[in-house]
Amino acid sequence: MNPDMHGLLLAYATYVVAAGSPGPSNMRIMATAMTRGRRSALALAAGVMTGSLFWGLMAATGLSALLAQWAGAMSTLKLVCGVYLLYLGFKAGRAALTPDPAGPAAGPAAPPDTTATLYRLGLVMHLTNAKAVLGWIALMTLGLGPSANWTTVAAILAGCALLGAMIFAGYAIVFSSAPMVRTYRRARRWIEGALAGFFTLAGVQLLASRS
Fold first, then answer.
1. Alpha-carbon gap, residue 143 to 5, rounded angstroms
2. Can you tell me where the transmembrane regions are (predicted)?
3. What is the pTM of this model?
4. Least packed by Cβ within 10 Å: which of 53, 105, 163, 165?
């Protein structure tokens, strides 16, 4: 059985727009790339991609649709995600208020996060992203037309996995380049301040949407 090509193209286009647009996960990948380098950002991106595929599988099997209809579960998910975003906003705000070290006398640098830690951070960020649940449900609804079959589902998941890897890894690679790193060093406190505002606003909006 051949997949529904119209549904596939619609699903791919929807995923590219959703995954590529600025959001908590992409903003954190960018910041990690500029502050910790390409390897760390790629580890974070891998965690985000894993979380995205998890919700994709849930949507494909219909479980996330059931979750979306259960108001209590969605409310809890939004609460967890909102609080987590506020925490990220607090951390970014504290970093923005911290002056740049004057030199070696400023003390030793904090030990870098391990690859596993950054992977888990990306995974948790996306697993607690309530919008990802609804986004995948919408994507599957658009992609699975009347003539869709199981090969269409598999093609949607495989294609979105490839597109997601390109998008998230692309952010990690581009924003870890030398010009981006130099830009970050010159405007670190402004960038961290912008991140703090973004995460705080996103968290407040998500918590407000529970009502």
1. 9
2. 6-29, 41-61, 67-87, 130-148, 154-178, 190-208
3. 0.69
4. 105
Calculate mean pLDDT across residues 2-9.
71
Indicate the burial class of 62 (C-beta count within 10 angstroms; 0-12, 13-18, 19 or more): exposed
Mean pLDDT score across all residues of the chain: 78
Type of residue found at 101? P
More reliable by pLDDT, 90 or 43 = 43
Whole-angstrom Cα Rg for the chain: 19
Average pLDDT over residues 32-38: 89
What gap in Å lies between CA 206 and CA 130, rounded to an integer?
A: 9
CA dist., res. 114 & res. 15, Å (int): 30
- The amino acid occupying position 211 is S
> Which residue carries 């649709």 as its tokens?
65
Contact 33, 172 (CB under 8 A): yes
29 touches 44 (CB < 8 A): yes
Dihedral angle over CA of 48, 53, 59, 62, nearest 10: -120
* Dist CA 133 CA 129 (whole Å): 7
